[in-house]
Design a protein that fits this description.
The structure is a single chain. The chain has 237 residues and is an alpha+beta fold. 31% of the residues lie in helices and 27% in strands. It is built from 7 helices and 10 strands. The strands form 3 sheets. A 5-stranded mixed sheet has the order 6-3-8-7-10, sandwiched between helices. The longest helix is centred in the last third of the chain and has 20 residues. Keywords: Chlorophyll biosynthesis, Isomerase, Isoprene biosynthesis. It holds the Pfam family NUDIX. InterPro entries: IsopentenylPP_isomerase_typ1, NUDIX_hydrolase-like_dom_sf, NUDIX_hydrolase_dom. Belongs to the IPP isomerase type 1 family.
């Protein structure tokens, strides 16, 4: 591992610490916990391909009372997908007791609450764990560059709350709320290569496969009708 530290001497100090200290939860394709591994190894394409490392993740979609979706642009110092626009918050439950709880997906909800504070400055009382609605799970693999990538079993969590956002610059470059038409325009720009706009692969998979239908349920207050936590959708980036 020491050699890897030397090789990554240019890595941002905060991101380096998280890469080596955070232990992700390893799962099989049925989402059974099979172990744990450093965030570093879980995002190293060489390890992903050689050992088929798959880790548990979550993606939060936070809407305000006007049913606009909060997006973030990932920080320039992020190891994977820097300066890419994505959903509200995307991260990993860690291999710790509070984030391994399976009942009612409480471990993932706890992790989501933790990272909303870490990344966006949203305090726990503004994002109560019982207000997250887990809508589904998807499995995907996506390279970021030649060295780094993602291979995740991703829990998709929706929450409707008005919150105050104070982005952490180590994690987030920019934020904005969008309505459906504004999101479609952002996607169009990414597809056309305009203004340097890039969209994260996991967010794009959700947009293409689920988001607009689920947005209908957000506006109608019928999210419970959209829940499908039995299926693990295997999607390709």
């Amino acid at each position: 591992m020491a050699a890897a530290v030397v090789d990554d001497a240019g890595m941002d100090a905060v991101q380096k610490r998280l890469m080596f200290e955070d232990e992700c939860i390893l799962v099989d394709e049925q989402d059974n916990v099979i172990g744990h591994e450093s965030k570093y190894n879980c995002h190293l394409m060489e390890k992903i391909e050689a050992d088929n490392l798959l880790h548990r993740a979550f993606s939060v979609f936070l809407f305000n009372s006007k049913y606009e979706l909060l997006l973030q642009q990932r920080s320039v110092t992020k190891v994977t997908f820097p300066l890419v626009w994505t959903n509200t918050c995307c991260s990993h439950p860690l291999y710790r007791e509070s984030e391994l709880i399976q009942e009612d997906y409480l471990g993932v909800r706890n992790a989501a609450q933790r990272k909303l504070l870490d990344e966006l400055g949203i305090p726990a009382e503004d994002a109560p764990v019982d207000q997250f609605t887990p809508l589904g799970r998807m499995l995907y693999k996506a390279p970021s560059d030649g060295k780094w990538g993602e291979h995740e079993l991703d829990y998709l969590l929706f929450i409707v709350r008005d919150v105050k956002v104070q982005p952490n610059p180590d994690e987030v470059a920019d934020v904005k709320y969008v309505n459906r038409e504004e999101l479609k325009e952002l996607i169009r720009k990414a597809d056309a290569g305009e203004d340097g706009v890039k969209i994260s692969p996991w967010f794009r998979l959700v947009v293409d496969n689920f988001l607009m239908g689920w947005w209908d349920h957000v506006e109608k207050g019928t999210l419970a009708e959209a829940v499908d936590m039995e299926t693990i959708h295997k999607l390709k980036e």
